[in-house]
Design brief:
single chain, mainly alpha, rod-shaped, transmembrane helix, transmembrane, membrane
């Protein structure tokens, strides 16, 4: 149970970091490609 909670917490942290990275990449490279 403890390991499961830790895995879920790490997954949420990784997903959040990946989302922020994608948003940053979209704001820089994505907009440059469209405009």
């Amino acid at each position: 149970m403890n390991t499961n909670s830790f895995s879920f917490n790490g997954f949420t942290s990784f997903t959040g970091m990946l989302t922020v990275w994608l948003m940053t990449w979209y704001m820089t490279s994505g907009l440059q490609n469209y405009y």
